[in-house]
Design brief:
The chain is 42% helix and 18% strand. The chain is an alpha/beta fold and 295 residues long. The strands form 2 sheets. The chain has a 5-stranded parallel beta sheet, with helices on both faces. Strands 6-7-10-8-9 form a 5-stranded mixed beta sheet. Helix 6 links the parallel strand 6 (135-140) and strand 7 (161-166).
Length: 295
């Protein structure tokens, strides 16, 4: 006889306009045995806006207590409870609390389902005007400048459209770093306050957006960046080959593997890429022109 367990429900909440709340959200909030909320005050505001009341127990579930509270919620689920998880905006577990609880529930063979809702990632992607057929979500970049550059270099040659979340006070530094790594002419879109009163989508080359952001930008920010252009062997000069090897090395690859990978991408013999790297290294050692090659 199989055991009977509860259900974990991940509920998407509006990212701005309360009218975007799915009808099922109100139903689940009213019927759940336990409502785990990233911010219980925000939850109260949400239920007031929806004109409903929760009947189950309300507990906080945020980054600071996620590890400690997960076992308690899993125990309730094992006992048959229906647990609803909501975060401040968007879908739990996507750059928000939730992953630990989902993983723990799956480990216990507990049913996990979702109430689909608004998504800043998909909304920004759709509004960006950039290719949407293939994309990857990169979440928040590291706060430290060096780590941020390193993370960007890892995806410098990524051909899929890139989507990031960013804090408004770091936006100018992030866009400047993107211009440095991706090139100032790479197309991008800064999506601000999506679905809210002051929604704004600023599109243009990432270098121009970096200059625009220097004056300060407020609100919730999602950045969408065009993927790397597809280039054939004839379009890759020696300097570009060296740059690609450098990017891979800085991401942690050994030079030999980086050269082999770049050669495969470009459809060139490994020897040709190796010669370009050696020539750049010699040019650096000879004096003028430092900074473009490898050390």
């Amino acid at each position: 006889m199989s055991r009977v367990t509860g259900t974990l429900v991940l509920a998407g909440t509006p990212i701005g306009d309360i009218a975007d709340a799915p009808p099922r959200l109100a139903t689940e909030l009213q019927s759940a045995d336990i409502v785990a909320a990233e911010d219980t005050r925000r939850l109260r505001g949400l239920t007031r806006a929806l004109g409903i009341h929760t009947t189950g127990r309300v507990v906080s579930y945020f980054e600071g207590n996620e590890s400690a509270r997960t076992p308690e919620l899993v125990e309730a689920l094992v006992g048959g409870a229906r647990v609803l998880l909501v975060t401040d905006a968007g879908m739990p577990s996507v750059s928000d609390p939730g992953y630990r609880l989902v993983a723990a529930a799956v480990e216990q063979d507990i049913k996990v389902t979702a109430v689909p809702g608004p998504s800043a990632v998909l909304t920004a992607l759709a509004l960006s005007g950039l290719p949407v057929d293939r994309f990857c979500f990169e979440g928040f970049l590291p706060r430290k400048a060096g780590e941020r550059l390193g993370r960007l270099r890892e995806v410098a040659d990524e051909r899929r459209t890139l989507v990031y979340f960013e804090a408004p006070h770091r936006l100018d530094d992030t866009l400047a770093a993107m211009a440095e790594v991706f090139g100032a002419e790479r197309r991008a879109a800064v999506c601000r306050e999506l679905t809210k009163t002051y929604e704004e989508v600023k599109r243009g080359p990432v270098g121009e957006l970096a200059e625009w952001a220097k004056d300060g930008v407020r609100g919730e920010i999602t950045v969408v960046v065009e993927g790397a252009p597809e280039t054939g062997p004839a379009e890759l000069d020696a300097e570009e080959l060296v740059r690609r090897v450098r990017v891979r090395e800085e991401a942690g690859e050994r030079r030999k593997e980086a050269i082999a990978a770049v050669a495969a991408e470009a459809g060139l013999p490994k020897r040709e890429v190796f010669d370009a790297v050696v020539a750049a290294k010699n040019a650096d050692a000879s004096g003028p022109g430092k900074g473009k090659g490898l050390t």
